[in-house]
């Protein structure tokens, strides 16, 4: 598991072979909402924001990650605001 967001970007930053696939899904289905789990530093999330903007007026895209440092590296921006993760305080029943 990665713990250094900068090292992760250096290792995976050039990986882009899968982006056309994800962008084509946004173009084909034109979703109003997208949830990306384990979004990391936004390698897929940020291009999907651009793809969504090209096909519809509003796209609510949420990227979740357990690493606050990865989320900070992904943003913040107007398109991708970053909020610190908060611990779950409820006990499962």
Structural commentary:
By secondary structure, this protein is an alpha+beta fold. It has a domain of 54 residues. The chain is built from four helices and two strands, in the order ααβαβα. The protein has a two-stranded parallel sheet with strand order 1-2. α3 links the parallel β1 and β2. The N and C termini lie far apart (30 Å). The model has no long low-confidence stretch (mean pLDDT 84).
Concise account of the structure shown:
By secondary structure, this protein is an alpha+beta fold. It has helices spanning 5-12, 19-29, 45-55, 68-74, and strands spanning 33-37, 60-64.
The portion of residues forming beta strands comes to 5-15%
Q: Would you list the SSEs in sequence order as H and E? A: HHEHEH
Mean pLDDT: 84
Look at the helices and sheets and give the structural class: alpha+beta
Helix content: 25-40%
Work out the helix count. Answer: 4
Give the radius of gyration.
14 Å
Which shape, going by the Cα principal axes?
globular
Widest β-sheet, arrangement of strands: 1-2
Number of strands: 2
Features:
93 residues; two-stranded parallel ribbon; alpha+beta
């Amino acid at each position: 598991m990665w713990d250094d967001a900068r090292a992760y970007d250096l290792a995976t930053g050039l990986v882009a072979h899968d982006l056309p696939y994800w962008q084509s899904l946004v173009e084909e289905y034109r979703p109003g909402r997208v949830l990306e789990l384990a979004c990391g530093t936004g390698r897929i999330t940020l291009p999907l924001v651009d793809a969504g903007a090209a096909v519809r007026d509003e796209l609510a895209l949420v990227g979740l990650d357990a690493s606050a440092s990865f989320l900070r590296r992904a943003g913040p921006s107007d398109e991708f605001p970053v909020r610190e993760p908060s611990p779950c305080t409820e006990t499962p029943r």
